Amino acid sequence: MKKALGLLMALVLAFGLSAGSKDMSLMDVYKFLKTKTFVDLTHSFYPGIPHWPGFPNEKRITIYYYDEGVGSMGFGFFANYYCHVGQWGTHVDPPNHFAKGKMSLDQIPVTQMILPLVVIDVHEKVAKNPDYVLTVKDIKEWEAKYGPVPEGAFVAMRTDWSKRWPDPSKMANRDRNGVAHYPGWSLEALKYLYEVRKITASGHETTDTDPGIKTTQDIYECENYILSHNHWQIELLTNLDKVPEYGALVIVTWPKPKNGSGFPARVFAILPH
Question: What is the pLDDT of residues 69-85, one digit of tens each?
Answer without folding.
Answer: 666 666 788 999 999 99
